[in-house]
Amino acid sequence: MDANGVDQTYTSKTYVELAVENGFGAILDLLVAHGADRPELFNAYRYRISVVGGDEGEARRLLEGDPSLSDQPGVLIQAALQGEIDRARLILDRGAECKIRSNDHDPTPIRFANHAGRLEARDYLVELTRDAHDQARFGNTSWLLDVLEDDSSRAKVALSNGMTALHIVPETEDTGAVIDKLLACGADIDKKNDDGKTPLVSGEASERTRVAELLRTRGSSV
Known about the structure:
- By secondary structure, this protein is mainly α.
- Helix content is 50%, strand content 0%.
- It is built from 13 helices and no strands.
- The protein has helices at residues 15-21, 25-33, 43-52, 56-65, 73-81, 85-93, 109-115, 119-126, 132-137, 141-150, 175-184, 199-205, 209-217.
- α7 (109-115) packs antiparallel against α8 (119-126) and α10 (141-150) runs parallel beside α11 (175-184).
């Protein structure tokens, strides 16, 4: 394999570019050892490599010089995926948002942590996020009520698949209060997602029978 070669899949990027963009410092070093030209790295790439590689000292040094580096969605996602709470705390302390979404499919660092089984990291981030969808999905309903009190517009936000927080309200002791608050803040009780499901249908499909009944008593019939 030519270490300076180009990936033959849809990316059409060199192996070096792929290693740098994904923060794979060890892979970059391996490619260079096999003859690839070492690229000049911007601090944004150096920061990503330090986060992915778990080099907290280097990450901290770079952040001290440029706090805006923490705005990169990928670095917090990597910390969440690896369950590195101390590293996530460092990134958040420098201004990153744990509600930031990485692309059109809407995953947040919280969702990545959950998918990777990093439940401690997930729960840590859920306590900090102001993302109504993540708060609803992972049952942080008391904090969701506080967030909606501060910013009612979050009740109406729909993801790229048409899902709103009302579609995923969990069954907790606050369920009725959460539904009432979402509706009072302007959530559409009969909004359909891309699959044509309303919050009521979504509740029934996921066996959240109490949610479904509460939605019916508040006027939903579809």
